[in-house]
Structures are given as C-alpha cells and as structure tokens.
Amino acid sequence: MPSAFRRFSWPLLAAMVLAGPLAGQDIIKVGEVASLTGKEAAFGQSSHKGTLLAIEDLNAGGGLLGRQLDLVTEDNQSKQGESATAARKLISRDKVVALLGEVASSRSLEMAPLAQASRVPMISPSSTNPKVTAVGNYIFRVCFIDPFQGTVMAKFALDTLKLHRAAVLASVSSAYSVGLAKYFKEGFVKGGGEIALEQKYSEGDKDFKAQLTVIKAAGVDGIFVPGYYTEAALICIQARELGLKVPIFGGDGWEGSPLIEIGGQAVEGTFYSTHYSPDNAAPVVQDFVKKFRARFGGETPDAMAALGYDSAMVLAAAIKRAGTTEGPKVRDEIAATRDYPGVTGNTTIDADRNASKAAAIFTVKDGKFKFVESIAP
Amino acid sequence: MSEFFQQSLNGLSLGAIYALIALGYTMVYGVLRFINFAHADVFMVGAFLGYYLAKLVPAASLWGGLAVMAGAMVGCALLGILIERLAYRPLRRGPTLNVLITAIGVSLLLEYSGQLGFGAAPRTFPVLFPQRDLRIGGLVISSTQVLVIVVAAALLLALQGIVHRTRIGTAMRALSLNATAAQLVGINTDVVISFTFGLGSALAAAGGILYAMNYPSIDPLMGVMPGLKAFVAAVLGGIGNIPGAALGGLILGLVETFVAGSPWSTYKDAIAFGVLIVILLCRPAGLLGKFTVEKV
Amino acid sequence: MPKPHLALLAALAAAGVIARCSGLIDPYYLDVLTIIGINVILAVSLNLVNGYTGQFSLGHAGFMSVGAYLSAAVSLFLGPRLLGPDPSALGQGLFFLGALLAGGLAAAAAGWVVGIPSLRLRGDYLAIVTLAFGEIIRVVFQNVDALGGALGLNGIPPYTTIFWVLAFAALTIFTVTCLVHSTYGRGFLAVHDDEIAAAAVGLNPTRYKIVAFVVSAFFAGIAGGLYGHFRLTITPAGFDFTKSIEIVVMVILGGMGNTPGVILAAILLTLLPELLRPVAEYRMIIYSLLLIVLMILRPQGLFSLKLGRRKPAGD
Fold it and tell me: What pTM was computed for the model?
C-alpha cells in the first residue's frame, strides 16, 4: 500500500487541485428554483421544462461564451420558506451566475432579497406582483405585471366586449388572482363601467355554482375570472350549466391546453389575455412548440413553459452581450434588453425591470385558441 | 326564490360527496378509534382508477359508467386492505397516535407518488354517464348532480344495511363497542378490520368518481381539501356514527354553498369551520354522537 | 445556581460564540441551522401540549402565524417611527426583542381564546377544533388587506440572526423543562395520565390544560416572529394545517413528552429534506416511507427515556 500510494498520490492530488477551478471554468452554472412537487407542481414542472429546453438548446448550439451551461434546479415543494433555502444553496454552494424563478410572486419575494444582497441577477418567468422587482435592481421579470394586465382586460371589456356591468369571480388565496382583480376593477370603473359584485373562491375549489348562482341573479353582462385554467374551465362549465350565457374572460393564467380539454364546449367564445399561444403562427413560436413537443413526448407547451424558456433565453442573450458572467455586468445587460424576439412576444425590459410587451387577447373557437387583438402597453 | 332552491340543490350535491367521504372516516374511526389520514388520498386513487378504466368502456353509457365505478371501488377496496395490512396492523397494539403518523406517511406517499406517477398536471375526467340538464322555471338541475345525490343515498342505505343486517356488520359494531370483548366472543378482529377498511375505501372510490364526474378535473392532490372538509363533517355529525357522517356532510355542503353565494364568500372556509366549532361547543360529541360517560 | 439555570447561561454563551463565528459558516448551512432552531422551538413548545399534557392540538401553525404577523407588523409599521433612520445595534436589538415578545404575547392571547372553548373537548374532537381554529386564522389573515392579504407581508427587516434563534431555542427548552419539573408539570402529567383521577384528587384539569396551551402558543408566536424576520416574507398559506402536521410529526417521532427526543426529531426532520436534495423528485416519497418505517420499527418514538414512568393500568 505505502509505495503505490506515494507514487500516485502527488499527481492525483495535483490533478484534483488543478481540476477543481479548471472544471469550474468550463461550465456556466445557472440556478433555477421551481415548484416541482406539491400544490403548484403543474406550474413549476411546466416552467422547468421550458427553462430546461432553453438550456439544452443553447448547449446544442455551442453554449455561451464557449462554455456549456449547467442548469441546477432546486425544488421548493410549493412550500413557503423553501425557496429561500434553495436560493441560498444555489448562490453559496453551487455558485450560480444567475437565478431563474419563481413562478409565484410570494416565493419570488423570498428569493429576491437574497439574490439582491449577493448581487446575483434574478429573472422571474411569471411572477406578476409589482413588489417583486421593487426589491432591488438585480431582480427582473419577463412577464406582464398585474397593473398592466388588469388594465388591458378592463379596456378590452369596455371597448371590445362593450360591457357596462361586470362581475368578478376571483380566488381569495392566490396573490395573482387578487392582484389582477384589483387592477381590473380599477380600470373598469375608471372607464365608466360598474362592478356589480365580486365573489370569491379558494384555490383547489371545484364547485362554483354557489357563486355563479348569485352572479346570475345579479344580471351582469360579463364575468371576469382572474384565475388559473384549472378553475377557469370548471367555472365556464358550471356557468353554462346554470344558464349563464354572458361573456366570461380572464388573464394569462387561463393559458394552457387543459382549458379546452376540461372546458370543452363551455369555453367556446371566452376570452383571455396572454403573451403566448401555441396556435400563434409566428415562426419563433412554432419553432419552440415543435422543439418542446419533440423533447417532452408530444406535450404542448403552455404559457408557463414559454415564459420559462424566455427567462433563460433573455438571460443568455444578456450574458452574451456582456461577454462575461460577472453579476453586475450581466445585470446591466439584462436591464438593457430591447425588443428581444421571445416566444412570449417582443420583450423589452423597462426601467422598473419589468417586461414591456403587448398583450394578445385570445378566444376559443372550434376547440382551438384564436387570436383576437393585440393591446400594446 | 329560485335562487334559494338552486343553492339548496348545489349544497345538497356538494354535501352528498362530503358525506360519502365522511362515511369512510367515521367507519374506520368507529371500529379502530383512529383517523385514517390516507382516506382522502384513496379517494384520489379512486378517481384516477376511474379515469384509466373509463378508457376501456364507451363514453356516456349507463352500463359503462356503473362498470367503471364498480371497478374503481374494488380496486380501492384492495388498496385499503393492503394499506391496513402493511402499515397499520403492525401498530395496532400501540398508542393510536403512532398509527396517526403512519397514516400521515401513507397519505403523503400516495400524494407524491401520484404526482410522480400520474404527473402533477390536471387531467380531464371523461364523461361516464349520459348527461342531461333539466330546466324547471329558473332552476337548473344537472343530471350529474342528481346522480351524485342518488348514488350517495343508495350507498348510505347499503352501508346501513351491511352494518345492521349482516353478521360482519354486527361484528363491526361489536368491535367498535369493545375490541377485547369482541375477541372474547370469537370475532376474528383481523378479518373484520380488513373488511372495514375495504368497505371504507370502496366508498371513498365511489366518492372520488362522483366528485370527478361533477368536477371533471383530477390531479394527485385533489383529495386534500375534500378530505379535510369530510373529516370535519364526520366529526360534526359525531365521529363513529354513520348517519351522523351523512348529516354532517350535508350540513357542511349546504353551509359552504350558501356562504359562497353570499357577500361573505371570501370567508367561506372560515365560516364552515366556525359552524363546526359552534356546534361542537353546544354538543361536544357531535350532532348525533353519544357522549360516553366514562366509568371510573 | 440550580442546574437548569446554569445550562441556560451556558447555552446562551454558546449561542453568542456561534453567532460571532457565523461569518465562517457557509450561508447555506447557516440557513439550515437557523431553520432547525426555529423548528426546535416549535416542536418543543408543541410537545408541552401534545406530549406532556396529552392534548392533541393540530393548530400550532395558527399560533405561529399570529406571532409572525404581529411581530412583522410591528417591525414594518412601528419600526421606522420608533427607530429612526439610523438605529444603533442595541436599539435595533431591543426593538426586535420587543417585536418578538409582542408577537409571542399575541399568540399566547390567541392560545387563550382558542383554548378556553376547545379544552372542554376530548381527544379527536379537540384535534379537529384546533385544526379548525388554525384554518380560521389563516382565512382571516388572507382577507385582511392591511396585512397583505394573499400575498402576505414582505420586506420585513432581517433582524433574525443565529444568535436570536439559538438563544430562544435554549430559552424554550429551559422554560418547558423547568415547567415540567415543577408542580405545574405534575399537573400536566396528571391530566395526561387520567383526567378524571386528577379531578378526583382536586386538580382543575382545564386550568392546567390552558396553561400548557398558552405557554406553548407563546413560544410558537416567538418562533413565528423569528421566522418572519428571517425569511422576510410571510403568507397565510404558509401556515396551513400541513405545517401544523409537520410539527406534530416531529413531536410524535421524538417520543411524546420527551424533550431531548423531540429536539432530535426536529433536527432530523429538518435535515432530511436537505440531505435528500439530490433526489428531489423522490424526496417526499422517501420522507413518507421513512415515517411509515420508523413508526413500525420504533413505535415508542426515536428516543424513549422512560423517566421512571410506568404505563397506567387498565390502558
């Protein structure tokens, strides 16, 4: 044992010592915090798939700055508090150059102070509450914020749908829903409309007949449902069952094939605002959809996946422009993103580090999503 | 006025589902004195079994629907018996709180395995029975709502029949009164307990399918909230009491529905729980529960 | 000086030393250590009710949330006015202590309000009522816009350091241990063993139950305050019955009424998900399987120090 050990130990030791930093040099580590399990696993998994596809795409094309990318993903089980631990691990143990995440605003708010303090740029794919980017200048997002989308839908409801009296059916336990509802109501009332009543439900609820019965009795000309596709589909079904024929419309949370799969006939003629649709004929979108389906067994990407993809791509473009992975320089380049041709639309990062892009209103016709109009910021 | 009737119908339909799930909780509690946390997840497995079995039968047919329901009930009965055999039986002699932890473990196992196996994204539950809506005046009655109420009532009556008219039912009641004495008179506790679990799980499966028929979106965590509400319903009616569970379920469904249709819809869950607390304060053993005087 | 007091002082000193060296510890490990500390406070305080007094409470997370929200509200709304633009370390520390105590007292008050009606109920009924109260607290917070509603409170100043967490953990263990070894403790154990017999010898079971409940709620509130000022964001959904059950699992796994066991269980159950990160997809599956296996193999809890107590007759 002794002589063999002595013969190989020094070269081995030297190799290990040198290999460490050298190995680090060849890989760019990007951190991702997502809810891969737990209550919001559907959204986290979707977002993760989009991000993963982007990283794999970039690596296939030669990587960034001549180096391959490594996506280090941590699961937060959709639980409060876990995103912060995951972010800390990614920053101090894995030494990632940037953080991607999270889908939910409350979990992004856990990560943001850590990213800001460590000067690690963070891009959230789909957190819509204005407070997230307000944490600091290292925090960005590639999606709309609630004030913008709420106003867009209010404008659409007033100008295109010509509604005067609307009802709002929002989730009391989702910050996204509450936020979107608030800004819609403001916009609708400011434009001369009247909010007849607002009913609430909780995440995970399946029965909305009680709320819809009361809405029906109130005699409104439209219902705004700022929720996710899971509830939206059921709400449309139950509304039609109760004989409610008025237009039902919502926000980008509606985007997802389960809306039509579950909703079926009931979602025909409903509207929602989004930044992405798989039926969008634009080449960059169709390219993405094709690649996604090929990679993930025929699954059609939804808005979360598209935003996950764009968050990674915007980061990559910024790193490329910066020519380095140093935090401050990458941060500056992300902030300088102008007219990036993303899957979720032409993206410009504005002064508040939010994405400035047009909202597209879609409807469902003959079992497919159909573009209606575009509303610019 | 029609709004009141509509809400009542909505509430009864929701309550019937809570009642079905609550029956399983209350049966197992009655016989074993323990809260089977995994019950709500057996409900979820039932719905998923129904989803996969439905691919084998033609859609929207009466016989197809009944076959799927029967198949799911049998499957979940087996699952329930298996869980009891593997996870609960070894702990039967110990304090009930330990079995509670095991039950929590089984519940988590089913939920997360479901997310891994079935995928976390919600799936559309196919149309099992022919659907038709009836409109009377301003009232809309969907055939699914009626089916839920009818099937739940039928199952409840069948359960009462089993518990009060069959030998094994009598054995269950004996076991719930005094386990040691039951053994002394020659009842095979293992068999009776397995049967209880199987029966409760079959009811959960039926509940799962009816729930999925009414709300056609299923996912591995779908049992969490209905399970909690059904548990509350079971306690409300007096835990261990079968008609109590049904009553508790109906009351909870009605309260929740009427509050959801009111201006306080945002407090719906809190009010449902609040009602529970108030009732328990007035009747500490639940509505139909008997407060057993402890002889010292 | 009696032994427990010496131990407390030693623990506080150790906390101070660790805090001084905290710059040398990897931030991730420090993060996990802080959470372990908070979980220890939660588990040890719940153990007082569930373990020693034998009352099955499923609403602990509700009290934690009351403490978290109140202390965060104090820091966010009163902080700027009381502290001024450039507070000294001492000033900040005293303010934080005040905020934590306010949160703890509010949680204790909530414990009293919840305890008075609930503690007349037995066993599983008590469990369901405490669970119901926990959920009601959650829904109320969700609907109070001033406290952030569904998004909760964020931007909470980061006052929690490893020193505070370790110090309060030591304090909680000290208080619970001293309480249990006092005449109050005899009362708790009597109520746990046989409520009717206890009443027959002249104890008021309800009084002891309420004391246990309120003390336990106080520390849950402190833990909540520490948590809020550590994570800097709190939401109502994070304090739901799933969280309560997590803490209950720690208590039962540690061996009910066994403080060292419960501490170890808290540490183990906090570390386990972190250690299982490489297999993130299977983490919860492994966790749940471990729970099942552990209970089957060691039903008396991980550590059973019998403490010379015999099983009550006629069980």
Answer: 0.89
